[in-house]
Amino acid sequence: MIKNKILTLTLLLFLSACATERPSLMGIDGGTIPPAFAHFPDVPFPNDAIVDLDETKALGSGENWIGSLVYTTPYNPSSVFDFYVSEMPKLNWLEVATVRAKISHMTYVRNNRAMQILIEMNGGDSAKVTVTAIPNANGVGKIK
Hints:
alpha+beta; TATA-Binding Protein
């Protein structure tokens, strides 16, 4: 329990230190991604996303982070699904499988990493999104 709180606090401090960076990646409504997500440049995030620090468990940064990032967004799950279908290939992610459902599942690979995205209704017309990054030892989807 204390380890989780320390990890959460460390992640919060780590993310807030990057708040001055403004990445150029476009979000759903044409703006830039939130600065709090700037340490995860290999994943697109929609504007107005709010990280859930209680559920987020991620280590590292850049293109070597592992773990799960959990966030909410004011966009409906269908819009978020379409956002990832459009934006992941722009970052050279290769689609392995996608399932649009009550809880949508999306799986992508790139180089030595795999990414799973779960999108679900968060109440009202908003979505809860879990992005999980893991090593991909088989190298499936490796860019040459």
